[in-house]
Amino acid sequence: MIFGLSLRTFTYLHVYLSLIAIGAGFIVVYGMIAAKRLPLLTAVFLMMTALTSLTGFLFPFKGITPGIVIGILSLIVLVVAVIARRRSATSGVARGSYVITAILALYFNFFVLIVQSFQKLPSLHALAPTQSELPFKLAQLATLVVFVVLTTMAFKRYRPA
Description:
By secondary structure, the chain is mostly helical. Helix content is 78%, strand content 0%. It has one domain (7-157).
C-alpha cells in the first residue's frame, strides 16, 4: 500500500502521470519548433514530469536502479528548466537552457517508457528479454536520434515573446 492505494493502483497512477507528461511534452516541443508559447500545456508537462519522477521514488526500494538514477537526473533538469523558463524572456542563454533541459526531461521520461515497454509487454519482451538485444538497442538509438533532431530544431526556432 502506498498512500492507501494498492501497489497495482499506484502503478497505474504513475503510468498515467507519465503518459500525460509525455503527451503534453510532445505538444510543447511542437510549440517550441513552431515558435509558439504554450504556457498552460508547458506547466502541465513540467508538473506531470516532476510527479512522474517523484511517484517513481515511492515504489518499494530495492536498491539503486537505473530508474532511480533517471528519476534523479530528471528532477535536476526539471529544476533547471523551470528556472530557465522564467528567465527565457530576458536571456538568450536561459532560452537555450530551457529548450535543452525541457526536452531532455521529456527524453528521460520517454526512455523509461521504452525500457518499461520492453520489460512489461510480452511481444516486446520476447524480442529483447535482457534488453541487450538489437531490437531494444535500435529502439533506444532511434529515440535518441529523434530527440536530438527535435532539440536542434526547437533550439533554433523557439523565441519567446
